[in-house]
C-alpha cells in the first residue's frame, strides 16, 4: 500500500486544487482496481480537531505508470491547517514469489493557474492536462519486494 500526505500550516493565497500522486515502473507494477481512497481535512481556527471536507474512492488521474489525486485547497483566515491524504495499492504483474529492488516517485504540484503537470519516474510519466505556472516537490524512494 502506498500512502501520500500533504500538510499545509500556512495556507496559500491561491485556493485551487493542487495535484499530488506517485509513479512507478509500469513494466513491474500495476495499481489494484478499487484500492484508492483520499480525504481532504481542515482545522478551523479555534478548533483542535480536523473536519473532513471531502473524501472518495477514485483517482483523479491514472496512467499505466502512476496515479494522482487533487488536494482541494481552501485557505482563508478561518482555516489554520489542512491535510490531504490518499492511499492506494500496487501489485506485481507477475504471479508467484517475486523479489527485487524498485522505486516509487511521489510528487506534489502547487498549481498557480489551471495547469499541466506530470509525475515522472525516469522515462515514465503520468501527465495532467492544460498549461500553467507551478512549483513542485517530490521524493524518490527505493524499496525491496
Task: Outline the biggest β-sheet.
Answer: 5 strands, antiparallel
Radius of gyration: 16 Å
Structural class: mainly beta
DSSP, total strands:
13
**Uncertain spans, ≥5 residues at pLDDT below 50?**
120-132
- Proportion in β-strands: over 45%
Mean pLDDT: 80
Please report the distance between the alpha carbons of the first and last residues. Answer: 12 Å
Helix content: under 10%
**Given the C-alpha coordinates, what overall shape results?**
elongated
Count of helix runs: 0
User: Reading side by side through the largest sheet, how are the strands ordered?
Assistant: 6-7-2-10-13
What string gives the helices and strands in order?
Answer: EEEEEEEEEEEEE
Task: Summarize it.
The protein is mostly beta strands and 145 residues long. It has no helices and 13 strands.
Model description:
The chain has strands spanning 2-8, 17-24, 29-31, 37-44, 51-56, 61-63, 66-72, 79-88, 90-92, 101-111, 118-121, 124-127, 134-144. A hairpin with a 2-residue loop joins strand 11 (118-121) and strand 12 (124-127). The radius of gyration is 16 Å and the shape is elongated. 28% of the residues are buried. It starts with a strand and ends with a strand. With 145 residues, the protein is an all-beta fold. It has a five-stranded antiparallel sheet with strand order 6-7-2-10-13, with no helix packed on it. Strands 1-8-4-5 form a four-stranded antiparallel sheet, with no helix packed on it. A two-stranded antiparallel ribbon has the order 3-9. Helix content is 0%, strand content 59%.
Amino acid at each position: 500500500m502506498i500512502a501520500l500526505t500533504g500538510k499545509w500550516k500556512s495556507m496559500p493565497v491561491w485556493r485551487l486544487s493542487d495535484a499530488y500522486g506517485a509513479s512507478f515502473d509500469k513494466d513491474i507494477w500495476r495499481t489494484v482496481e478499487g484500492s484508492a481512497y483520499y480525504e481532504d481535512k481542515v482545522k478551523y481556527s479555534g478548533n483542535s480537531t480536523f473536519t473532513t471536507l471531502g473524501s472518495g474512492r477514485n483517482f483523479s488521474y491514472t496512467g499505466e505508470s502512476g496515479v494522482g489525486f487533487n488536494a482541494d485547497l481552501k485557505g482563508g483566515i478561518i482555516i489554520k491547517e489542512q491535510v490531504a491524504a490518499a492511499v492506494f495499492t500496487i501489485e506485481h504483474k507477475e504471479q508467484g514469489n517475486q523479489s527485487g529492488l524498485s522505486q516509487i516517485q511521489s510528487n506534489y504540484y502547487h498549481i498557480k493557474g489551471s495547469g499541466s503537470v506530470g509525475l515522472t519516474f525516469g522515462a515514465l510519466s503520468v501527465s495532467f492536462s492544460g498549461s500553467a505556472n507551478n512549483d513542485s516537490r517530490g521524493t524518490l524512494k527505493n524499496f525491496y519486494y
